[in-house]
Amino acid sequence: MLCGAISGVALLPSFPSRRSDAFIDVPTAAPSGPWSSAVSSGVRKFADLRRLSKGSLQMKRKFVLAVAFVLAAMLSQSLSAGSNNKSAGDQNSWQRDLLTWRAQRATSLQAPEGWLSLIALGWLKEGDNSFGSAEDSRVQIAGKTPAHIAIVRLEKSALRLLPPAEGFPKELLVDGGPAKEQTLLADDADKPSKLTIGTLTIIVIHRDDQFALRVKDLQAPTRVAFHGLRWYEPNANYRVHARWIPYNPPKVLDIPTVLGTTTHMPAPGVAEFTLDGKVLRLEPVLEDPKSTELFFIMRDATSRTTTYGAGRFLYTELPDHGVSQPGEVWIDFNRLVNPPCAFTAYATCPLPPPQNRLGLAIPAGEQRYHE
């Protein structure tokens, strides 16, 4: 490429003819393209050289320097253009990945057992807890469901499924098989129990020292009437490189919840970064000891105007050297999302701890679902 031509003008100067001391004519047409300034300067230098004394040593030295000048300028411009092209390519790739991920986010919410399908949440007391559409049910489930589906007996954190007086409904399945009196496992077990009847799915959730029945419905109004998500435009300025400072040993954070309770989650360290000229820190938690992601529960000033008032969630990859060693981690605020409680009253969302409530606005990521 360095020996090519720009707009038909030879890039390299002519050398003295062996048959005479005269120089072959230097092109005078104005070049164009990324190197036009450098080449024009070089052409002027070559023209000046024609006026120097024939065979002059000084002339020859200037000639060599002029050639070197043009070649260096061309190489520099070539490398700069290549770097700019790579940067533009990286930017396009990042934006494509982000938009694909956002589309997947909407699809996940609408999944048959996604957050939009929730229709009921009932906390269990010690002893027998009936559930069904009957008004006297401990956990009442609205809709076209049997009056009495079953009973969950809670005894010192042990769960057992029992039949109602009229027996289990024939269509009630537990883990794909006909319902029978049996032990139930909550959602923090390796293989939690799943009850299905008609369009309903029912599981037991365990939150701190409490248990509840969570009910999902394929025909939930929130799922059927889903009207899409609203996002801020992608903005690479809100994708930041953070310094990872580990806690050894990890801290345990008190995390408030929408239920008015407090849960306890491990914080392996803190991410420190600069945004809008300010040095900020956020403490993520791990949802599970085996988690492969950091979980940021946070809020910023946009919660008063355009984003969900209680805060938003953000998941990132683990730091480059793991959570226990100093390192770096990328935080892309363009992937901030609303918590499940932004869509349904039957979620049990954690809320941002005080240290994760930022005073500045981060106009990036998902906006409010409801006006």
How many DSSP-defined strands?
19
Structural class: alpha+beta
Distance between the termini: 57 Å
H/E order of the elements?
EEHHEEEEEEEEEEEHEEEEEE
Major sheet summary line? 6 strands, antiparallel
Radius of gyration: 34 Å
Fraction of helical residues: 10-25%
**Spatial arrangement of strands, main beta sheet:** 3-13-12-11-8-9
Average pLDDT, all residues:
85
Low-confidence stretches: 1-32
Q: Tell me the strand percentage band.
A: 25-35%
Number of helices: 3
What is the global morphology? elongated
Multimerization status: single chain
Count structural domains: 3
Written account of the structure:
- With 371 residues, this protein is of the alpha+beta class.
- It has three domains: 5-82, no CATH class; 115-224, Sandwich (Tumour Suppressor Smad4); 236-356, no CATH class.
- It is 19% helix and 30% strand.
- It has helices at residues 36-50, 57-109, 221-224, and strands at residues 5-6, 9-10, 118-123, 127-132, 139-140, 150-155, 158-162, 173-174, 177-178, 182-184, 195-197, 200-207, 210-217, 239-256, 262-275, 278-282, 293-298, 312-317, 327-332.
- The protein has a six-stranded antiparallel sheet.
- A hairpin with a 2-residue loop joins strand 15 (262-275) and strand 16 (278-282).
- Helix 1 runs antiparallel to helix 2 (57-109).
- It is elongated, with a radius of gyration of 34 Å.
- The two termini are 57 Å apart.
- Residues 1-32 have low confidence and may be disordered.
